[in-house]
Amino acid sequence: MTSPERLHVQNGTLFDGTGAPGRPADVVVEDGRIAAILPPMQRVHDARVIDASGAWIAPGFLDVHTHYDAEVELLPGLPESVRHGVTTVVMGSCGLSMAVGDPVDLADMFCRVEGIPRATVKPMLERVKTWDGPAAYFDHLASLPLGPNVAALLGHSAIRAASMGLERSLTSGVRPNELELARMDALLSEALDAGYLGLSINTLTWDKMDGDGDLRSRPTPSVFATWSEYRRLARQLRARGRILQGVPNVSTKVNVLLFFLESLGVMRPGLKTMLITMMDAKAARLPFRAAGLLASLVNRLLGADLRFQSLPNVFDLWVDGMEAPIFEEIGAGTAALHERDDETRARLLRDPAFRRRFRREWGSWLLGRAYHRDLDDTEIQECPGDRALVGKSIGQVARERGVDPIDALLDLVAEHGRALRWYTVIGNDRPEWLRWIVSHPAVLIGFSDAGAHLRNMAHYNFPLRLLRMAKDDRVMPIERAVHRLTGELATWLGIDAGRIAEKARADLVVIDPAGLTSDVDRIVEVEMPGFDGLSRLVRRNDRAVRSVVVGGREVVREGAPLDVLGRERSGSLLRAG
Fold first, then answer.
1. pTM > 0.90: yes or no
2. Which region ranges are annotated with the description Disordered (predicted)?
């Protein structure tokens, strides 16, 4: 590996990640660290100049919610995040982790939930997984030629399956015995000693198992745990000031109150709790406001330390046929996705009894919902078998055919399968309430799901979208937006990142504000190296990012990654504490 260069980032406006106003300054980088912060126009000998004229110099952005756990093995440079100025990513979200367990079990827990092809991940894990336990996994990550810095949570589903056996961990009513609980405790202790940020758990029943056997389509292991199991593990987190990341049941939304109670600090230290997610969902307009108010109260008055991960942009979704987690909200949707073969699935979708069940569950409010299920609020993007459908909503197709919208949806998927591609907006569609969310003190900016839902979502560039809001809509000062994307996140997570100061790690981004235009919303599809020709949905806005430096090495220049295949290490493994 080549040594980091001596760099002189020149003539920019410096936002240091503390929330301080921007100021004209130059930054000198040497040996992977910030060597000096100088007044503009200083001469620096033997340094390569990065021109920041008319641009902002900021710390590299943090992404607090990714699922890069598989992609980092195939493409450790993680260029799709780095190209947007993200220099630190957090893995191990939603109870999922590669830290411990059987490779096939890990692939089955991970792939269907996160929309990643099992045909790629399973053989990859069988090939590369040589570690056995959280500490050894961190040693493995540290050996990879990482593009950005990587921090991680330990996934509860992984340690539960490793301690109980996969089938027991996925069986309703079966509780771990004392030896199994002690094993989970020991794995968590090992992880915290190694520097994991904390533990991630999942209570969302519509995250389902992949695989070939009888366990396919059951919820992931963490969902089967009782709150006494979660609380036992949370004792270590509370005692050591580490993080509990939780996925509430976003359909019913009721058990979010249990996370609030667990975070309380009355007669005990508050538990750092990070929840997914505060969003102005079309299906339910009030819960995010109630959650924001309650979070403010418990944090201020009851010693809690609770945060919501949130995106600073419209939450939109693309679907190939029915390949999206929103259909797992209902049992009929899970039954359809259980069938992987298009012909078998089509026969099920045409079955009258199945249609009655689907219609009943789709329309029920008793089951709760995160997706609005308004088929007029869709747009068909692609349909090679019938191009006349492109641009129409599924509701419009139903009216033209004189059928119920549910029948139109099931007919279209049965006829065209995954070739039918359509679009919908889940939430964050009201600008005034989106501004409220991104300004809320209990919000941590970031919920990209980078590395997952490869055909469904494209939130990799969320930092640039917040900066555009700050620049154009004046939702907050630029220095506050930078702080929300950098120093605020790093401080709460407890890692060495997110600031520009002498001797600090040299992770920084040069942003051209003239590039923060509508281009940050533009969607493209690009092929993913190492994923057997799979195309990923992304947003590309190369004009906005002039340069990205990680660990003292320039890794992006004029919006383009310099090491797409990840042959040169620039990032480091970041350990809590």
1. yes
2. 1-20
